[in-house]
Write a structure and sequence with these properties.
There is one protein chain. By secondary structure, the protein is an alpha+beta fold. It has two domains: 212 residues, Jelly Rolls (Sandwich), CATH 2.60.120; 107 residues, Arc Repressor Mutant, subunit A. It is 41% helix and 26% strand. It is built from eleven helices and 14 strands. Strands 1-2-3-4-5-12-7-10-13 form a nine-stranded antiparallel beta sheet. It has a five-stranded antiparallel beta sheet with strand order 6-11-8-9-14. Strand 4 and strand 5 form a beta hairpin. It starts with 6 loop residues before the first strand and ends with a helix.
């Protein structure tokens, strides 16, 4: 594609977040959000239906665009994690192969990526526009998007499917194609046709009665608990050598110890102490590689008074002893 085929314009996303949109042709647009490392590739597949491939390598919170009434939003996590913060101030986390649908009543207020990385697929459906088309606009096909929204999101305005094998099977070819397109491995001829086929297959599956029997129960955390877990995460990063009992952390933030532990694990993928140990070993590995300090001193600096326990922990996390790691590094 030459430069004459590319058109760029800027849009505003509230609050105070600028999005740059580049129309690349082939039915595809590319969105880059300022202040964050990442992008969205967007296709207009059918009237009222957009499909996106989302890649973000950032921990920054991003506001969700106001799509207006009558919208249905679907998200599927390929890798990483996606914290969905809803308008009712509750939060849930999408992890690998998780899928969710939210209506405008349960709309996303903002999103962030606790692990610093998220790759996923998004589908945005305007029910008023797409509804009649999906029922009657495609020969031999009839999909009731209103029924999908009503049946799946009736209880909480959000439908959640944890680690869905069937949805993963349907979307696997799309995930593979999107990653190759992002890396520029080949031209995207046929991509739009693939997206249309897989979109219809997904909607047919969502319309099936059997899906209701496999609905996953998602745990939603109050904003206070989420903020406490994020505060603990920051504290670990800044003071990784200090080991503070979880019940003291919970008391400090005035939240339940169980809720704090569960929420932290959902956001960051491992229990608090396991996560902290990983950070300690990461810091120790940096010092072993770049400094000549005695191993016992490095052990003390990352919070271990006993060098033997440090060696055992390092071997469990890294796969070799500190001495072996240092020797191999040089």
């Amino acid at each position: 594609m030459n430069s004459s085929q590319v058109h760029t314009e800027r849009e505003k996303i509230p609050p105070e977040r600028e999005m740059v949109m580049t129309i690349e042709g082939n039915g595809r647009s590319r969105y880059t959000i300022s202040g964050a490392v990442g992008e969205m590739l967007m296709w207009e597949l059918y009237p009222g239906i957009r499909f996106s491939y989302n890649r973000f390598d950032t921990k920054e919170e991003l506001p969700s665009g106001d799509e207006g009434p009558g919208m249905l939003e679907m998200n599927y996590c390929i890798s990483g994690s996606h914290e969905c913060a809803f308008r009712d101030k509750s939060s849930a986390v999408l992890k690998k192969n998780d899928f969710c649908i939210s209506t405008d009543e349960g709309a996303l207020e903002k999103a962030c990526f606790p692990g610093g990385s998220y790759y996923g697929l998004g589908i945005f459906v305007d029910k008023d526009i797409a509804g009649p088309f999906l029922k009657e606009g495609i020969p031999g096909i009839s999909i009731d998007i209103g029924w999908i929204a009503e049946k799946l999101c009736a209880e909480s305005s959000v439908f959640y499917q944890r680690s869905s094998r069937e949805i993963g099977r349907i979307l696997a070819p799309v995930s593979s194609r999107m990653e190759k397109l992002r890396k520029g491995w080949y031209e995207d001829s046929g991509t739009e046709s693939l997206l249309r086929i897989k979109l219809l297959e997904l909607l047919y599956y969502l319309q099936s009665e059997r899906l209701l029997n496999h609905k996953s129960r998602q745990i939603y955390y109050p904003s206070k608990v989420v903020q406490a877990a994020k505060s603990v995460h920051r504290q670990i990063g800044e003071q990784y050598w200090m080991r503070v009992p979880v019940h003291h952390l919970a008391e400090t933030h005035d939240v339940s110890e169980t809720a704090l532990k569960n929420c932290f694990r959902e956001l960051y993928g491992s229990p608090i102490y396991t996560y902290q140990r990983g950070i300690r070993m990461e810091k120790a590995a940096e010092m072993l590689k770049n400094e000549t300090y005695p191993i016992a001193l490095i052990a003390e600096w990352v919070g271990y008074e006993n060098a033997g326990k440090f060696t055992e922990a390092f071997r469990n996390v890294v796969g070799c002893t500190p001495r072996e790691y240092r020797r191999n590094a040089f």
